[in-house]
Amino acid sequence: MSRVVVVGAGLGGLSAAVRLRAGGHEVVLLEQAAEVGGKLGWFSRDGFSFDTGPSLLTLPAVQRDLFLKSGAPLESVLDVVKLDPLAHYRFPDGVELDLPGDGLPAVAAALDDALGPGRGEQWTTFLRRASAIWDVSRGPFLESALEGRRTLLALARDTSAIRTVAPWASLRTLGRRYLTDPRLRMMLDRYATYSGSHPGRAPAALATVPFVEQAFGGWYVRGGLRQLALAVADRARELGVTVRTGADVVAIETEGARVDGVRLADGERLRADVVVSGVDAAHLYRRLLPRPRLAPTARRRSSSGFVLLLALSGRTPGLRHHTVCFPDDYDAEFDDLSAGRPVADPTIYVSAPDDPALRPDEDSEAWFVLVNAPVHDPGGRPPGGTDWRAPGLAEDYARRVLDVMAARGLDVRDRLRWYEIRTPADLAEQTRSDGGAIYGSSSDGARSAFLRPANRSPVPGLFLVGGSAHPGGGLPLVGLSASIVADLIGPA
C-alpha cells in the first residue's frame, strides 16, 4: 500500500482521492480552505444560495464512472436533472432562440424556426465534422496521458486523423467553412470562452465542446452543482480517505530526485510515496516545488470572469435556466480581453435555476451573472490583466453590467434586494489560481493541447490533476484528469 497525499480538494483532487483509495492506497486529502470544492464554490445569504462556479454538467458518464467504481451509483446520492432547453440566446438583431437539450435533430429544427430555413442544416453539417474530431481525439487526447514528443510522433503517422482534427486551423476558421449566418458564428465563438480563449486562436478541436453538449445533453444537480463536490467528498470519507480542511500546503518536499512528502504552513510534515497536486499548476511550479526551473514554459493565461450574485424579488416570466445575451460587436469583446482590460460591452451569461433550494420563498429568484473578464494582475506581468483591486473599479463595473443587462431586456435593477460582487482577484485569492484564470493556461494555438502541464510531472512521484493540467478545464475534463492519474499510479 502506498501513502498518497492529495493537495487541493477541488473536483480533480477529490476524484483522484476516491479513485486511489478505491485502488487500495492510503490517502490523505489536504485543502487550504475551510471547505472542499475549489472552483465549485458556493455562497449563501438571507435564504438565497448560489453556485459560484460551473452551472452546467456535461458528460455525466465521467462522474457516473467514478461513483460506480467506488460504491453506490451517482443517482443514489444526487438528483441529476437533464436540462431542456440548454440555453436561451438573445442576438443583437433582436432574434431569440431556445436551444433544445434533447438531441441534434431538435437543435436543427429550432435553428430553422428562429434563424431561418437552412440554418439547422448548416449547424448540423458543422457538428458532423465536430463529431468526427470527437471520435479521433477522445482516446489519445482526453482519456490518456500525453507523453510529449512520443504522442506527437504517434499522432503524426495517422494522416487521416490529422486532416480530421485540422490542428493548423482555429475554431473560427473551421466554423466559417460551414456557417454563413453571423448568429451561428456567434454561437460557435462562445464555446471558445469555455476554455478562456479567443476563437480566432483557439484550436479547431474545440468544436467538440458544442457537439458533446448538444448531442449528449446538459445536466443540473438539484440543490446546486456544489452538491457534486460534497457527494464526492462524502464518498472519499466513506472509503477511508482522511480529508483535512484548513491544511495549507506550502511546500512539496523531495528526497534526492523523488517526492518525499509535503510541508504545511504550521510546520507539520507529512511523508508520502506519491503526491497528487490538484492546485493550479502555476502555483505548484512557482511556489511549492524546491526547483522552480522544472516549471513548464510560461503560456498565456486563460481569461477569468466577473460575477454578480443577484438576490431578486419577484419572478421572471419565461425565465430559462441559462440565458446568453450577445453584444453588437463580439470581436470587440475578445479584443478587450486580449488587451487585458474589462470588456466595455460584454456578453451576459445568466444562470437562474428554478430550484426552491436556492431561494427563500416563491416570490424571489437567485441569479448568477457572469461576464468574461481579464485576469487580475496588479503588477502588469505579461500578457497582462486588470488590477481588480483598484479603488471603485469593481463597484463601477457592477453598475455597468446591470445597465447592459437592462439594455438587453433583463432590467432587474428595481427588483434587487442585494447583490454580491466576485472579481478575478477574489477567485485568485480563494483558489490560488494564477490571476483568477479559470482554466489555467489558455487553449490558444495549434499545439495548446500538448503544452498544458502534463499529468506526470518531471519530479518522480508527483502528479497533476485539475483544470490547469491535461486534458483541460471543465467538469468532465477535470474528472478525466483524475482517472488518468489513477491509471498512471496504478493499484496498490
From TrEMBL:
<comment type="similarity">
    <text>Belongs to the carotenoid/retinoid oxidoreductase family.</text>
</comment>
<feature type="domain" description="Amine oxidase">
    <location>
        <begin position="11"/>
        <end position="301"/>
    </location>
</feature>
<protein>
    <submittedName>
        <fullName>Phytoene desaturase family protein</fullName>
    </submittedName>
</protein>
<comment type="pathway">
    <text>Carotenoid biosynthesis.</text>
</comment>
<dbReference type="InterPro" id="IPR036188">
    <property type="entry name" value="FAD/NAD-bd_sf"/>
</dbReference>
<dbReference type="Pfam" id="PF01593">
    <property type="entry name" value="Amino_oxidase"/>
</dbReference>
<keyword id="KW-0560">Oxidoreductase</keyword>
<dbReference type="InterPro" id="IPR014105">
    <property type="entry name" value="Carotenoid/retinoid_OxRdtase"/>
</dbReference>
<keyword id="KW-0125">Carotenoid biosynthesis</keyword>
<dbReference type="InterPro" id="IPR002937">
    <property type="entry name" value="Amino_oxidase"/>
</dbReference>
